[in-house]
């Protein structure tokens, strides 16, 4: 993997189990610089504080859902370049299309495998010219 | 009396509400069956992983103890030169090959155990929906009993884009059932 192992990730999910799983999987892939947020509103606060280079987010969360978070990121000048990977149980085609149109960098449907996460991350890094 | 209750319910508009709630119960049963299924699968995955990992850890322990005993003999001056050479070679092989191979194998099973916990996210979402249904049922029945309040404001259905996991995809064309279908859809749209 050619992307910087120090790359700072923000993992957004209202379930701590899933945050832990994603964090552990990122660690297995060599990324140990990971912070967590339990909903979109908290995520946005953390992102505004700066320093993040990658967002992995759930969709269905209280306070602010993942789609709204994505839309807000894309419409905020200092955040709009951030890659946003959605990992969600929402499996309606309508959801996938809405996420893509809102500018999601990738879409993973739960339940997912370690291999899928690795593949999607690499695909995004390739597009960013990092791999 | 049953007749009177029926009429009262109709007048208050609760017959529709109760009908709606009762019709939601089969869906709730499906959701609970889904929870049972996912948790059972997770338990099996974890037990399988520990079955694979336990002998690996045992091998590490037994191998280390066996080598350790022979090293104790060396320190007690009970080992000849040839025996010492053999011990040194075997210890080196243990450290360089057997041990890392078995710890990697164990680590793979730890990852499997971790991944088996992903059910909690899905079952949590499903159970939350059942809880909402139970609350609706409770408040509906309560209102019928006290027969005073006008139709209570129902909890809004979640927005159509937030439905949680698909419990039964059979016969549905509006949902995907795996990552491959997600990727195909995005490809077909040029994303």
Detailed description of the structure:
The complex is a heterodimer of chains A (131) and B (191). Chain A is an alpha/beta fold and 131 residues long. Chain A contains five helices and five strands, in the order βαβαβαβαβα. In chain A, strands 2-1-3-4-5 form a five-stranded parallel sheet, with helices on both faces. Chain B has helices at residues 2-12, 14-75, 81-115, 119-146, 179-188. Chain B is an all-alpha fold and 191 residues long. Chain B has a single domain (2-148), classed as Helix hairpin bin (Helix Hairpins, Orthogonal Bundle). Chain B has five helices and no strands. In chain B, helix 2 (14-75) runs antiparallel to helix 4 (119-146).
Features:
heterodimer; A: 131 residues; alpha/beta; five-stranded parallel sheet; 5 strands; 42% helix; B: 191 residues; mainly alpha; Helix Hairpins; 76% helix
- Rg of chain B computed from alpha carbons, rounded to a whole number of angstroms: 31 Å
> How many structural domains can be distinguished in the coordinates of chain B?
1
Looking at the structure, what is the overall shape of chain A?
A: globular
Strand content of chain A: 15-25%
Instruction: Please give the count of helices of chain B.
Output: 5
Approximate helicity band of chain A: 40-55%
The N- to C-terminal Cα distance of chain B equals: 63 Å
- Count of DSSP strands of chain A: 5
